[in-house]
């Protein structure tokens, strides 16, 4: 099975998603990460079906910029996506993701607003025979 979803926002970095209580030192999710995951679950991930077994993921982050691209850590961007997929009950747990291809694409805009309007995240999920085919294609490339 193959499922695709695209949405016009980039996830916040895990570094920005968690804050620390300065008195206790405990880590907690801040409202930016909660808002992002809630938006994904309620608006963009609703049409996806549950996928069991081993999962393959292909993610494309399209990041807008005006003059010089500001690099973001791909791994930190993926964590909140995986959490949203789990909380939406599309996958049982992100530990079942055995294959992951992540790309970051930069697109330039003349203004900050134009650059931000070009930003998007695309996720394709694979399992079963489709996952096996994806892995075989990747092996031929490598």
Textual characterization of the structure:
The protein is of the alpha+beta class and 142 residues long. The chain has a single domain, classed as 2-Layer Sandwich (60s Ribosomal Protein L30, Chain: A). It is 36% helix and 30% strand. It has five helices and six strands, in the order E-H-E-E-H-E-H-E-H-E-H. The strands form two sheets. A four-stranded mixed sheet has the order 1-6-4-5. Strands 2-3 form a two-stranded antiparallel sheet. Helix 3 links the parallel strand 4 and strand 5. Helix 2 crosses helix 3. The chain starts with a strand and ends with a helix. The mean pLDDT is 82.
* Overall morphology: globular
Largest beta-sheet details: 4 strands, mixed
Radius of gyration in whole Å, from Cα?
A: 16 Å
Distance between the termini: 24 Å
β content, as a range? 25-35%
Gross CATH architecture: 2-Layer Sandwich
Please name the fourth-level CATH homologous superfamily.
Holliday junction resolvase RusA
Number of domains: 1
Q: Please mark out the parts with pLDDT under 50 across 5 or more consecutive residues, or reply none.
A: none
Give the total of beta strands. Answer: 6
Helix content class: 25-40%
* Structural class estimated from helices and strands: alpha+beta
CATH topology type:
60s Ribosomal Protein L30, Chain: A
Helix and strand element order: EHEEHEHEHEH
Q: Kindly state the mean pLDDT as a whole number?
A: 82
Oligomer: single chain
What is the helix tally? 5
Strand order of the largest sheet: 1-6-4-5
CATH class: Alpha Beta
């Amino acid at each position: 099975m193959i499922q695709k979803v695209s949405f016009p926002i980039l996830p916040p970095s895990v570094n920005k998603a968690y804050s620390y209580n300065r008195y206790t030192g405990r880590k907690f999710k801040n409202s930016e990460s909660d808002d992002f995951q809630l938006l994904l679950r309620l608006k963009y991930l609703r049409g996806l079906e549950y996928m069991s077994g081993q999962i393959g993921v292909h993610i494309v982050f399209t990041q807008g910029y005006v003059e010089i691209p500001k690099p973001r850590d791909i791994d930190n961007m993926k964590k909140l996506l995986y959490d949203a997929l789990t909380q939406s009950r599309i996958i049982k747990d992100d530990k079942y993701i055995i294959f992951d291809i992540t790309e970051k694409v930069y697109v330039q805009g003349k203004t900050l607003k134009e650059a931000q309007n070009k930003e998007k995240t695309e996720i394709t999920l694979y399992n079963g025979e489709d996952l096996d085919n994806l892995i075989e294609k990747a092996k031929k490339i490598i």
